[in-house]
Design goal:
Elements (H helix, E strand, L loop, with lengths): L2 E7 L2 E8 L16 E9 L6 E3 L1 H20 L14 E7 L2 E6 L14 E6 H16 L16 H4 L5 H23 L17 H8 L30 H16 L2 E2 L3 H18 L8 E8 L4 E6 L2 H5 L6 H4 L2 H4 L6 E9 L5 E5 L1
Helix pairs in contact: 1-2
Length: about 350
């Protein structure tokens, strides 16, 4: 007798049948390990008959659906599901709400005149019910435990490979033009004259004597005379900050940043980690020749309020990463008691961004 596993969604149902290779009698235990797949059935809502096949069919279904769903959600094209000479099943986007699923006759023959075995049109809801059914299969540790799906992030080079040249050049052109206009405007502004502050003129001794005592050298009734210190002078404070004052300023700045409350909720930290990853990947366009590591501070709403290079290369190549442009000046100058968390951000020379809590 065979072991059966079923993963059901409103618009899709996935049924796997197989055997256990541990020598136990099937169906004596309700949760035996299904390690040998005999057949797989994929029932789509509204279709008269399911898609069926063996191990090759099921592996192709999992690979192509996962790859296509990743491309559909990210908007980044991947050539993984277009290998028509090696896959039994293929997915192609018709429009935003319609997708074509094609099941080929065999993955051995590569003749161009070979007709597909079956074509099914899926709505977006049906497609993601199929994705959810596959996710339920991966969550079941007692079904095909040796089966795994190699998933890796799309590299930055592949993500920007199809970006037209005009959007890449336009920001630089606008920036250079704006800089030239600002320089021309500043050329006609006169340089302000700086005058040193004048020291107050010291009063004469006679006026001081007149203020200290009466003409008869006797104090007025009820008035206690006090002498004016002779060394009392006014000295304007120097506008130059020496090294000790500058060090004190940096310590105060650091204390203001560390006075904020630290976020400790793991769910909130994971949410901010994903948000920071999306923000950096969407704004990083410059290639680097070595790995760069930074310590980044993020507020509870995802705003970047500070970063610090960890290795020497990160300090030299800070202009090649988007962190300086992503600083939120309004959040930096805002409330010092805001909630923050810190992340370790690694920019790799292969074009990937790796982020983990600090």
């Amino acid at each position: 007798m065979t072991i059966q596993r079923q993963y059901s969604l409103p618009n899709c149902k996935l049924i796997l049948q197989g055997l256990s290779d541990n020598g136990e009698t099937p169906n004596l235990s309700p949760r035996q390990i299904l390690s040998i797949l005999i057949s797989a059935e994929c029932h789509i809502h509204g279709q008269d008959s399911p898609l069926t096949g063996g191990r090759d069919f099921f592996e192709s279904l999992v690979r192509q659906v996962s790859s296509y769903a990743q491309e559909f959600l990210s908007g980044i094209s991947s050539s993984g599901h277009y290998s028509e000479g090696q896959e039994l099943l293929h997915l192609q986007k018709i429009d935003i709400n319609l997708h074509r699923l094609t099941l080929s006759q065999s993955n051995v023959s590569s003749r161009k005149d070979q007709k597909p075995k079956r074509i099914i049109y899926l709505t977006t809801i049906e497609l993601f019910d199929l994705v959810e059914a596959i996710d339920q299969f991966f969550a079941d540790s007692l079904t095909l435990p040796d089966f795994s799906l190699a998933v890796r992030p799309v590299s930055r080079k592949q993500a920007h490979s199809r970006e037209p040249m005009a959007p890449k050049v336009l920001p630089a052109t606008v920036g250079i033009s704006g800089l030239a206009i600002a320089a021309l405007a500043l050329f006609f502004i006169p340089i302000p004259e700086v005058q040193r502050p004048r020291e107050p003129q010291s009063e004469s001794n006679e006026s001081v004597d007149n203020l200290e005592t009466s003409p008869t050298n006797s104090p007025e009734p009820g008035l206690n005379p006090t002498s004016t210190p002779k060394n009392l002078e006014y000295s304007p404070k120097s506008t130059t900050i020496d090294s000790s004052e500058e060090k004190l300023f940096e310590e105060n700045l650091e204390s203001s940043l560390t006075s904020t409350s630290k976020i400790t909720d793991p769910t909130e930290i994971e949410k901010l980690q994903n948000l920071l990853s999306d923000t950096i990947n969407n704004n990083w366009t410059t290639e680097i020749n070595t790995d760069l590591i930074y310590r980044v501070k993020v507020t509870a709403n995802g705003s970047i309020i500070g970063y610090k290079p960890i290795n020497s290369a990160a300090a030299d190549d800070a202009d090649k990463v988007p962190l300086p442009d992503l600083l939120n000046q309004q959040a930096i100058s805002g409330d010092n008691n805001q909630f923050i968390t810190e992340f370790r951000v690694l920019f790799t020379k292969q074009g990937f961004v790796e982020i983990e809590p600090w």
